[in-house]
Design a protein that fits this description.
The chain is built from eight helices and six strands, in the order βααβαβαααβααββ. By secondary structure, it is α/β, with parallel strands linked by helices. It has one domain: Rossmann fold. Strands 3-2-4-1-5-6 form a six-stranded mixed beta sheet. Helix 4 packs across helix 5. The radius of gyration is 17 Å and the shape is globular. The termini are far apart.
């Protein structure tokens, strides 16, 4: 039995482009982000994949990425479940701020601590540990059973909500998790064993070439 899970971070959003803390705000994809999503679909099609079910967050950038991937696969009507458990980490008072401006306000060290520590949250927001506590139970309860039944499953979400899943799937320490880079629009394909351990991982990260200015 094939037990296949595919994780995809959404394509570049307008706030990614502007170097803003995005969190639970809801900007659209850029033109580049739209193309990254389509390219993700093309890469998955080249792998011969078709999905039985899809999951995404309540935020448009992830939903649109999911939609474009499925369109490339000819699966426009596939059942897709949306849940805020898969939303991006909530950045609290940092949300909407340019990252350089945030450093000017709070200092380089404090902003770096908020961004790169596992268990220190920005004012009014979530730490990565908080994001894991929100995302992982939903994955175990709602997503993993589909995978273990042999349903090829797509999850299109966000950098930090996906890291929360990857931490468990790849058995990463908090320190190793913080170093785990996820490119926008780059699928990661997991083949799973019946006991939910990982049999193999294929990371299709191949960023698009820089766009001409």
């Amino acid at each position: 039995m094939d037990r296949r899970l595919v994780l995809v971070r959404h394509g570049q959003s307008e706030w990614n482009l502007k170097n803003l803390f995005t969190g639970w705000k809801d900007p659209e994809l850029t033109e580049r982000g739209l193309e990254e999503a389509r390219e993700a679909g093309r890469r998955l099609k080249a792998e011969g994949l078709r999905f039985d079910i899809a999951f995404t967050s309540k935020l448009r950038r992830a939903q649109r990425t999911n939609q474009l991937i499925l369109e490339e696969l000819g699966q426009r009507g596939l059942k897709t479940i949306e849940d805020e458990a898969l939303n991006e980490r909530d950045y609290g008072e940092l949300t909407g701020l340019n990252k350089d401006d945030a450093r000017k306000t709070w200092g380089d060290g404090r902003v770096l601590l908020w961004r790169r520590s596992y268990d220190v949250a920005p004012p009014g927001g979530e730490s990565l540990r908080d994001t894991v506590a929100r995302t992982l139970p939903y994955f175990v309860r709602e997503i993993l059973p589909h995978v273990l039944r042999g349903e090829t499953t797509l999850v299109t979400a966000h950098g930090n909500s996906l890291r929360a899943l990857i931490m468990t799937l790849e058995r990463l320490s908090p320190d190793a998790l913080l170093e785990r880079e996820l490119f926008t629009g780059a699928p990661i394909i997991y083949e799973m064993n019946a006991d939910s351990t990982i049999a193999s991982i294929r990371d299709l990260a191949r960023p698009l070439a820089p766009q001409a200015q």
